[in-house]
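Example record

The entry below shows one chain as it appears in the dataset: sequence first, then structure tokens.
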Amino acid sequence: MNACNELLLHAPGRVLEVFIENEKAHPALVQNARSGNIAVHVLERRKLSELVEGVSHQGVIARVSERSYQELPAIIERLNDAETALIVAVDELYDPQNLGSILRASECFGADAVMWSRNRGVSITPAVTKVSAGASELLSLCPVSNLRNALAELKKSGFWVCVAAVGSEAQSIHEVELPGKVVLVLGSEGKGVQPLIQKEADLLLKIPMFGRIDSLNVSQAAAVFLAAYRSQIGKTPS
């Protein structure tokens, strides 16, 4: 529901038609669709489920045009003169729930783009979009062929590569002075960030733990890192 409504509010041109189980349950969404001359079809739940092959849909489905992505050179050019900029990069993340949650946190904390390797992780699926609460439709998304090479290009453009890590060599996110232009690199929960990617790091960062469990879910960690960046660098909240 949230993902469909965010599209209708911020990218209505991508919405081709809306299918809904009960108009009265979502009056604002229906109004947003019809005000943009987007057809709204009322279908029973069984028919809705058939449209998405059984995926959970909350009684609301939108048929949309294909999502466009940004190329890295265009992102670098857009952020070239910025004093502060934040890009989130994910390395070998295959869980759509985690990616969706990271996209949601990235949008909430004002990330300028999210980047990932085309061949080493999950892509933007309907499940990712749903978990992201529509953030996947609001962010600049940048799949790249080689993540390490992309990080090297960003470093040449003035970004610092900050890799989420564990161990004594990593510095606490709360004790390090962060630069204005940052690429935050997050890895999979099982293996973390690949050693080859870590070689591009200007900073290795960790979240200090005080409980008996020694790590956070990667999407939870993303929110903590992003909040720490914003608390240092600052940005007027919306």
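Notes for this example: The mean pLDDT is 88. The chain has nine helices and ten strands.
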